[in-house]
């Protein structure tokens, strides 16, 4: 099941956006993400959060239109985006694209990236779309395809520790069984040599950043 989650960060419509909406089985608005949905003319299936970032009129409109509403207290131990990701997992999401999760506050952008890389979401293919880039969380133990265009820049950054046994094919700078140390720049600014490349690593979590401009 493909899921779109709208968060409360920066969001601008991009070329792939209409097709993402058309193929989504579930659309979740995480609090202020409901404003992005409204501006894009989209009615989400679910809205959740403490709703401190949207007007009462929009929430009442959602209720009239049959949107599933999950209310949470303002004082809680998780962000609205984490609650949305948890709900997506509970509903059987296999692929989740996070929109509005990047940009604006640095702390929130970094927290959203680290959140998406949590072990509890290992079985979900999580991506984050921001201005000029698309990020993918790559968990270990399986081969990941990176699809874009020849010459596109791709960076691979380890999250939370070293990424071990990294093997890259279809890139200008291939690797075989390499360890990328946490904090190292070893995986920055690689280039795709075809429209599809592959990444495999034995242990750790990688953040794959594809530039789209």
Automatic annotation (TrEMBL):
Q: What is its EC number?
A: 2.7.6.2
GO term, biological process aspect, one: thiamine diphosphate biosynthetic process
Indicate whether Kinase appears among the record's keywords: yes
Q: Which Gene3D superfamilies match?
A: Thiamin pyrophosphokinase, catalytic domain
Q: Name one GO molecular function term.
A: thiamine binding
Q: Which Pfam families match?
A: TPK_B1_binding, TPK_catalytic
| Keywords from the UniProt entry | ATP-binding, Kinase, Nucleotide-binding, Transferase
Q: What is the top EC class of this enzyme, as a single word?
A: transferase
Tell me which SUPFAM superfamilies the record gives: Thiamin pyrophosphokinase, catalytic domain, Thiamin pyrophosphokinase, substrate-binding domain
Report domain Thiamin pyrophosphokinase thiamin-binding positions: 141-207
Put simply, this protein is called: Thiamine diphosphokinase
What is the scientific name of the source organism?
Answer: Desulfopila aestuarii DSM 18488
């Amino acid at each position: 099941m493909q899921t779109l989650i709208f968060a409360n960060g920066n969001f601008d419509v991009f070329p792939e956006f209409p097709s993402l909406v058309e193929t989504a089985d579930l659309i979740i608005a995480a609090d202020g993400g409901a404003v992005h949905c409204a501006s894009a003319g989209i009615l989400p299936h679910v809205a959740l959060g403490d709703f401190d970032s949207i007007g009462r009129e929009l929430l009442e409109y959602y209720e009239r239109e049959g949107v599933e509403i999950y209310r949470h207290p303002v004082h809680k131990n998780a962000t609205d985006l984490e609650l949305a990701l948890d709900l997506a997992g509970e509903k059987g999401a296999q692929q989740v694209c996070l929109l509005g999760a990047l940009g604006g506050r640095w702390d929130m952008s970094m927290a959203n990236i680290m959140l998406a890389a949590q072990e509890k979401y290992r079985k979900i293919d999580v991506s984050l779309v921001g201005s000029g880039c698309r990020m993918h969380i790559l968990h270990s133990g399986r081969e990941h395809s990176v699809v874009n265009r020849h010459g596109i820049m791709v960076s691979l950054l380890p999250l939370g520790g070293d990424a071990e046994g990294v093997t890259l094919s279809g890139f200008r700078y291939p690797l075989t069984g390499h360890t990328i140390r946490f904090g190292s720049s070893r995986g920055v600014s690689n280039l795709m040599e075809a429209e599809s490349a592959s990444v495999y690593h034995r242990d750790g979590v990688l953040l794959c950043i594809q530039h789209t401009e």
